[in-house]
Design brief:
InterPro entries: 4-PPantetheinyl_Trfase_dom, 4-PPantetheinyl_Trfase_dom_sf, ACPS, Ala_racemase, Ala_racemase/Decarboxylase_C, Ala_racemase_C, Ala_racemase_N, Ala_racemase_pyridoxalP-BS. Keywords: Cytoplasm, Fatty acid biosynthesis, Fatty acid metabolism, Isomerase, Lipid biosynthesis, Lipid metabolism, Magnesium, Metal-binding, Pyridoxal phosphate, Transferase. It is found in: Cytoplasm. This protein is an alpha/beta fold and 506 residues long. Helix content is 32%, strand content 26%. An eight-stranded parallel β-sheet has the order 9-8-7-14-13-12-11-10. The chain has a five-stranded mixed β-sheet with strand order 24-23-15-6-25. A five-stranded antiparallel β-sheet has the order 16-19-22-21-20, with no helix packed on it. Helix 14 links the parallel strand 13 and strand 14. Helix 1 packs across helix 4 and helix 6 packs across helix 8. It is globular, with a radius of gyration of 25 Å. The two termini are 31 Å apart.
Amino acid sequence: MIVGHGIDAQIISQVSAVAERRPGFVDVILTPAERAVYDARKGKHRQEFLAGRFSIKEAYSKAIGTGIGSQAHWQDIEILPNEAGQPVMVKHPRQNQVVVHISISHTGDTVHSSVILEKAVTSSVAGENHEKVANQAVISTRRPAWIEISASAIAQNIATVRELTGTHHFIAIVKANAYGHGLAQVVTAAKQANVDGFGVATIDEGIWLRQYGVMEPIFILGVTPADYVDDLVAHQLIPVVTSEAWLDAVSCKLSRQATLVLSIGVDTGMGRIGIRHQEELQRVVEKINQNDQLILKGIGMHFATADEKDQTYYQQQVKTWHKLVDNLPLPSNIWYHLANSATSLWHEQPSHDAIRVGAAMYGFNPSGKEITTDKLTPALSLKAELVHVKKVAAGTAISYGATYTTTQPEWIGTLPLGYADGYARQLQGMYGLLPDGRHVEMIGRIAMDQMMVRLPEDMPIGTVITLVGKVGQEEITLAGLADHLNTIPYEVATSLSTRLPRKLVK
């Protein structure tokens, strides 16, 4: 159970200026162990470290509801980097009472921090929480393989779509662990970019957002069973009304005095969920209008072919929408949300009220090769460090099945990730990028947790290999991997395992 949440933001240059004017300031804020890390860093990295520790300690004090100096002093809180370089709170005043989840991110001259306090599991309730703990994903923070999410790329993509569409409300779609990019990282970046709402697929994703501190409207795009109406109310989530029967079931289960905010789904040709007939749609709107416990926040649809050059079916859906919706007695402040990423990029907007954007926010081209675009910047990079390097003789077989055998003496490097991390077994023969942009081929079969690359020469352990992302002028994209796998980049991204740590970077 979440028992506290605090957020804070600091201007890095301002914190640095205070440290320059008052040399003792650093030792007030940092513990001796933190000071050692601070002293080992140089330039902007030192400034970011100090501002980050200042901010995260402020956020912790807000999470416990006291402020610095009451029940939490600067020296009582210690945040040190773990083996993967990620900040971990190793000491704080409520050490035995709560589990602390922290996030520190830098954007330009600003550091943003978030602290979530979760009630610790005691022995008396351990049995009750066993299933919950068993279902939690293990994130491998002590292994040098990780995903980086660019906050600036997400912000740039959001700004691009806003400018293209001119719409009033931007709904950031963060379902499926933010398309595999990481909920915490993407939500943080999207909030920094001032989105107006969020969209998820399930009620559990919506509850997670609320517990993370999201205050904006949260739309659930998938069907929520009526049995969970109390949870919808408690967490102020907006489910989609997909039928009159669903609305009737929810209305019957709604507690007295409770208020439920709704969005209506209209099926104009996607054939998935939503109301298809005008009479049913009219009855649904009338029932909502006549029930003081129900508030209609939105109404939307989904385009099936907005990412194709042939606009015939797209225009047919637009006509169906107007036929079904135009004469409905809807509230004046309702959010009309029709456009998805493809509609936002390539069509005249059917409504300038609200857009639901997933793929474009992450830098995907939702059309693949059908319609090209240069307006988007990929937000995700996948990287790993060499953990083992060896020189082998000609005639040496590598990995399962001996599918690769050296024809001459070669340097072979091992990377600590594999198909269990979402880097598919079929990607044997693809390549990664060295820090100077040179290609290194994946040789031998990709195993569950490890894979090998052919190196041009001996290289030190810890050399970073980019598997998705840009190095200089060279770039490996999710779309490129998807082409190799004969699928779409959405599938590649959402297949990236939760055990890979996600890091929000500039």
